[in-house]
Structure formats: structure tokens, C-alpha cells
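Per-record layout

source: Digitaria exilis
name: KIB1-4 beta-propeller domain-containing protein
length: 868
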Amino acid sequence: MSSSSSSASNDAAAVPWADLLPELCGLVVDHLDPISALRFPAVCTGWATTCKENNPLLRSGAPALLTSGLDLEGVVTEHDVDAGAFGLHDVSAATGSGRSSFLGEAEGLKGRTWIGGKDDWLVTTDYNLNVELLNLVTGDRIPLPPFDATHHGAKLEVQGYFHVTSEVHHWHKIIKVTLCQTPAHHGGYLAIALFSNGFLASTAVGDKCWTVLKNPAAASRLDLSYMDAIVIKGKLFAVNESGRVYSWDMSSKTTEPAMVQGPEVETTRHYGGFYLATSTRRQFLLVYVYGDNELFRDNRVHSRLVFNERWSFDELGMSLHELDAGGSAAWRRVTDLGDDCALFLGANHPFYITVPPGSEDLKANCVYVADTPSGYDAGVFDLNKGEEDGFVERQTGSRRTDTDSVKESRLSKLPAVQGEPLLRRNLSYATNTRAASSGGRPALRTSTMSSASNNNNKAVVIPWADLLPEVCDLVLDRLDAVSVVRFPAACSAWAAASKTPRLRSSTPALITSPVDPEGYDIEYNVEEGTFGLHDVTTGKSFQGEAPGLKNRTWVGGKDDWLVTTDMRCGVELLNLVTGERVPLPSFTTIPGLRVQEFSDVRVAFNHQDQHLQQVTLCQTPAHPKGVLAVALFSFDLIAFTAAGDEGWMPLKNPAVMRYQSYADAIVFNGKVLAVTTYGDICSWDMDDTEAEPTMLQGPEEVFIDPDFIRVFYLAVSSNGEQLQVVCLYGYSDNKDTRTMRIVIKDQLCCFSASRVSLHELDAAASTWRRVRDLGGDRALFVGGNHPFYIAVPPGGGSKDLQADWVYVANLDGYDAAAFNLKLADGEWGYYSNYPAIRRLDYPAMGSSQQMPMWFRPTAHPVFANKRT
């Protein structure tokens, strides 16, 4: 095929997903919002596989820090949470040169703040304590019972602004909700709500209210100030400010709890707080963070919607203590989490991460704490540093107050001068200095994460709609043909952002043999099922491969559907986008027909060899009445089949059919219509196939030339009311370049087209009217496909898509051509300056076995079991 197309690119050969340039992955991911980045692997699996080895961000199961919206300067104040904005920071990429922070927005966070979380799920609340679960990735929302509905006689009133009052007129402010089980758990969700002043309640899936846990009878004020709670092995544990641990059996939460004296820690010398978790041995673990609150000022007290003032001090160290499971109630000091584990604590349910060997950003045997007591987004306590008395010295200016301090404190190691062996590394991200939301409290662990590497160190991201058009173009041009068609459904935001979309729904494309930019290759067989799909509006070409095309050739089509056949005339329908295949009846159901033993598509009928010419697909399986197809063979065999038929129904030829054959066929107004090679129209009633057809003389010749040959196509007007005939004029050429085609129409052999005329039937008067334009906003496409009209945008389409032109596929010497209807007959001359014909050559193989045919994608379904 010629490579001199006016629109096709020399770079048309499609590159597989696996060969996508790594730097291209980075460019795109740099412009993703976090939810898109999280969902990307499921939507675009091929790309995710490509990026897998290029340090992907937000990997499945990896830790990320959820904060208020991004702010590079760190000086913006978050006055409200109405926008539902948040920042998501990849902890595993905190020190690299790549991007680690993503700006997102969630409908389920508008007017709400998070107060806990586990895996993909957050616990969120509004000002009136209407608590619900939100899956940040999918957007699923599950309401929890209201707090004024409590069990076992406890009466609460919701006062607003995150407070409730009890029957003894105590005010209780929400501190956190520990989400012990998510809705994905086989037992459903389980949550524990912690309020100030000794109020603790739990709820589980199926509960219509919260169950208030009974406090110990002889409890002091400190005993009733719970700092954390967790469920382990059917028991609910809570720890108070002094480190005393209480436990309730989940089946009897309204009885008094059992008490376990906490480990010996220095609570008088230091100011501190406690977290609860499980150890790596699945035992109860108490984590003590201690420090100094003298002269400590914390602006979070005034800016955070939800904040526990007990967690406001200068932390100096940490100790971990495991409770002996043997029943001795003895505590064991934990100094080692193992060579490959890191523990993550905060408002989230605690979790461990397996650290990859050689990781530079995640460190094993460390405890990561979100929203540190001293006000950092997160801190890292290293258990490998030995044990000494004293304090950890903080770098000057390490608190995040300006741009420089953010850079200095980000994963910067602080020297341990004295004291506890725990070296803390401060992690600060580009978040608002005064955040109304919970800021960096939960260290969110996502379970559906993966993305691509990048080389951009800017934390502020650009929404999908602002994605650079050239980036869209670079990626779309490297997709395979089927992925391009399905892309708008798979990545709708990106499709909307693209300035130059490819293969849009209901726009014309040409399907050909595989893409070959040079046009020299020869297609010797169709075993691989490869094809080229060429966008008429943009001139872009895409390579594709379909299992349903292996060892098959197409002989017709409509919209997304192709009619394909093997060498034994086994005909079926193939949806090129979804891969769905629908078998059609065998041609051997026609009485007297048998399939010939030849390498081409041939049958024997009435003592003659007849080649399959085309199958006009008049209705696809998507039609309410199902499939309807008309098959044309050389000489005089025409047959049709419809949904529910077990075979093909041959139609009776007219008595005057001698020396003629059928050039094209269509179904119109319930009748099968066929045009003969002489231009006459045959009409059959589909309910009376034994009767001879009604004959109608075709349109008169417009161009009188004894050397002219006419070729005919049938169509229906754009309003669906009139029958149309396309008359293609040309000359006989003894040399035909399509010698290797499996299927080729006899009327097109050795035919060189030069001009066209369009005629419309006045059914009432049985006369033909010459059509010289299509209304100024339409183009007509004919060939082996079912004919269709395309609406051309106002002001004209692209160079290769113009209104009032007729587009014909599969011509000798070129893939397709467009003919101008508006020119006067005298302007068609060889030396005319007016464009009467435009040849369309695409980068397909020079000698191909497949015929070029128009293809019109109309839908973009996505199936999980098929490649995107």
C-alpha cells in the first residue's frame, strides 16, 4: 500500500503497553489525582504492568499518609472542609527525587473530617456526629448508627460540634473511632468510639445503636481518660492516661472490665501517651510515647476539628511492651520488630508493613507515628539505635513553619544525643499549616494501589482536565486499536481532557490488513488475527489483534460488528471491541449448495462455482429484533438469514437475470433490495421468497462515455426514508494490485474509479432524482460495510472528512477514496483545478489478503476479563 497518505503518520505502527516509555509513565502519573492513581491498575492493567518495575507510587498494600489539602509553601490556613479536598503522600517515596504527594477530592469528604480508618476505609463525621464509613478508592459510603441511639440505658444527646452530653451532664468530645474491621471483613465492620471524659462505645454490622461500655466502679478521673482502644481475640482493650489497661469480653461489654496494670514506665518524669496494637507474635502490644510539655504551644488545639489535647507535647522517645499471653500478666520489653517489619500507628487501626530488602524510604524495625505529639505530619522511631538515658535532640527550625523547614525536616535523621535509643525522623509534607481536618492522623494503608514512576518533584498536581494535551496524544498514539476504542470508558476523565481524541464513538475508521508504515510487506496469511484501524478524522493509525480474526477474513460489517469467514465459508459475527462472537448458520443449509475444497472462499451451486462476494450486515445483535444479514455470491446467488433462523433462505432470481450478477444488497422497509451489475433494482418480500422479485430500472447514466464502467452501491438517505444508489464511474484496468485478496467483488476487479453520482428514488413516482449535496453537514460511507452517514462538524471536519462527499472503500490502487458531490459535471475533467476525488492511503501492507472496509465504533464497553 502506498505510504503517501496526506494524513497518516509514519509512526503509525502501534507499540505494545509493555514497551511504553518509562518517562512517559512518569509524565502521566504526575498529573493524576490520588483516586485515579489508586484505581489505575484495575482500569489500565497493561500500563500498570509496564510501570510495575519503575518504582510505582501508591502500591497495593503500601503505606500512605492522609492529610489536609496540599500547600507547597505551608502557610495556607484550611478554614473549612466543604470542598472535600485531601492530600495523599506516598511514604515509600518520601526521600526520592520523584513525586510523593497527590491532591485529591472526594464527594464523601465534603463537609466532613476523618476520625479513624483501616485499609481503604475511613471513618468520617460531620459537625453533628453523623458518622459513616467511606471507601476512599471506590466512593462507597456506609452510615453508622447515630450516637443518640445507645444500648443498655445510657442516654446521650448530640450537642453539635463533635460533642455529646450524658445523663450526668458530662460533655464528651469525640477523640477517634478505631475501625477494627472494615465492611470487607467476612464478619462485617466493627468500630470503637473514644470520647473524652471516659466515654467508650462500640458498634458492629447489624447493630442499630452503639453499646456503651461500662467503666470500672472505683475509677478516678485518670482512669476514665481513655487514649486508645482495640479488639484482639474477641476482647476489647482500652488504655488510660496512666497506662492502665482494661479489657471487656465482646459478648458482655456492659459488665465491669478486667484490669491489667500497665508496664513500669516513667510517667511522673515524662509526659506521654499510649497506643495499642498487636505484636509481630500476635500478642497484645502497648506503645508508650513520652516527652515534655513544658512551654509547649500547639496550634492544633485551635485549628483541628477533632483533636486530643493529651497528644500535645514534645516527644522524646518511645518504648514498646508486650503482654505475656501465658496468663502471668507480665510485660516484656520489645526492642525488635524483626528484620523486615515496620509498625504504623495513629488514628488508623495499627498495621505492619513488610519492608522490601534494600529499601531506602521504608526502614525495617521502625515505628511510624502519624500526627506526632509535637505537630509533625509523621515521625519515625528507630528501634535499632540502642538504649541510653536522656532525650532526642531536635534540629533547629525543624518544625514546619515555612518552605525551608519543610525541606529540612522531610525524612531528615536527627542525632540521638542521650536517652532512649529511638531515633526519630520527622516527615513533613506540603500540607496546610493550619488544617481544619484531622491532618496527618491516619496512616492510610491502601489495598488497591499501584501507579507509575515519575521524575517530577512538585507535590501540587494538576487535575485530569488540565493534563497536557501533548501527553494525552503521546499515550493514545501508542495504544493498540481496541484499547483506543475502549479508552473513553476505561479512563473517562482522561478522555474528556484529551484535545484530539482518537476513534471517537460513531466516527469513521477504515479497517485494513496490519499496519506497515513503508507499505512494502506482504500479508501471506491471516493466522495471527492482526489488523490496522485508521482514524479518518485524525489520520492516525493503530495496530490491533483479535482472537476472533485468527485464520479468518472479514466480508462485511456494521458499526462495531464484523462478519467474518474462514476458508470453508464458516461465517460468524465478531464484535471487534468486546471480542464477542455470534455464529451464523452454515451456507450448506441452502438446498443444493456445497462448500468447495479450495483455498479461497468458494461454494458450488447450480453446477457453478460461486465465490462469496460479501455479507451485508443489516442488523447487528444489538438490534431489538436481532441479526439480519444478506449474502451475495458471484453469478446469481443471493440469500438472507435473520435472528432465530436455522439456515439461509435463497431468493428467487428474476427471469431476465441472464448475464447479470448482484453488485450490492440491503434491507429497506421490510424488503430485500439488490442492485445488479447493470444498475437495475430487484426487490423481494421477505415473507414470500418463492416469488420473483419486483424489478425497477436503475438511474440513467450521467456521464456518457463508451469506455466507462459503472459500479453500484445501495444506501438509504440520512432521514431513513428514501432508497439511494451510488454510481461509481471508471475505466477498465488490466492490472489489479489486489491479487492476494481472499475475498474481492467481481465488479471491482480491474476497475479504476474516477467519479461518482448519487441518486435517490421517488417511490411514489418510481423515478430517480440526482443528489448533488448531503445537506452541507453529512458524508456517506459505502463499501463492504453496511452504508452509513456521518455528521460533519459545523465549519467542516478534518482534511479527510468533508461534508457532501461520498467515501468508497476498497478501490484498486488505494485503500479508499472520497468523491465530491457538489462539483458540476463539467468540473470533473482530468485537468480541472477543482478537487473531485481524494485518495486515502493508510500505512497498511502493500499486498494484503484483507479488504479495506469502513468500521464505525459506537460503544466502549469494558469487561474485567478482557484486556484494556
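summary: The longest strand covers residues 608-619. The CA atoms of residues 557 and 785 lie 5 Å apart.
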